[in-house]
Amino acid sequence: MRKIRSVTDKLGRRLEIPVQPERIVSLCPSQTETLFALGLKGRIVGRTRYCIHPADAVREVAVVGGTKKVDISLVRALEPDLIIAEKEENTPQDVQALSDIAPVYVTVIESYEDALESILELGDITATSEVARQLVVEIERTFARVPVAPSPLRVLYLIWRNPYMAAGNSTYIHSLLKKVGWTNVAATLEGRYPVLEDSTLPLQPQVVLLSTEPYPFQEKHFPEAQQRWPNALLYLVRGDYFSWYGVRMKEAALYLQELVPLLHSLVESHS
Known about the structure:
Elements: E1 4-8, E2 14-18, E3 24-26, H1 29-37, E4 44-47, H2 55-58, E5 62-63, H3 72-78, E6 82-86, H4 92-98, E7 104-107, H5 112-125, H6 129-143, E8 154-160, E9 165-166, H7 172-179, E10 183-184, E11 207-211, H8 222-228, E12 233-237, H9 239-243, H10 248-270
Parallel strand pairs: 3-4, 3-6, 4-5, 6-7, 8-10, 8-11, 11-12
Antiparallel strand pairs: 1-2, 8-9
Helix pairs in contact: 5-6, 6-10
């Protein structure tokens, strides 16, 4: 008989999970990538269509719909013994329905610290704690080399167009902006991802960061954005390095090591 243990997820729900889960369905792209980094290839049996990394490994894993619309019947057919979800990525309705199939461990990521804690949680619930601890050490070591901005640039980070939406307070993106010493001008607005109405025009950012995801901003969108923020420097950034947590944070730190001094140099030239 398989050994079962009690754990509490980040929503405070008590779950009974296998000591060593063998059939895992992961419903969050960042978490899926991290689970593979923890050495769980062969034990991950289901993923969403947005769980695209690591590309070679996920090809072998069944797709169970999208993050916001999971196909419950497909998950049931996979007979998982553990399902991993994330509060922002997955809906409460799906979590409730999936809970009739297997225990659903829900994570909550709203900051850099939450992201590191989540890696340790994933290690704990999948019996890969030592690998998870080593990964966290590597991420912290790499982030320690990210230079802190010499002055607090006023930054607006765009995640969407038509309408424009920004990363606000209590988000992982906001946490990264703050970590490198920048001021997120959208943090004062209501909501985690506020819509930028005309009334938000006085934000007066020095830099507008246009992210490549979830909206695929490109340089062709610069003229339109420049009309909205005429005095700001516009810069296209890789969205995965600002919004994917877990193992992707190692690459993100290397990216930020170059981006922080570059942006400050560009702002000095722009002003």
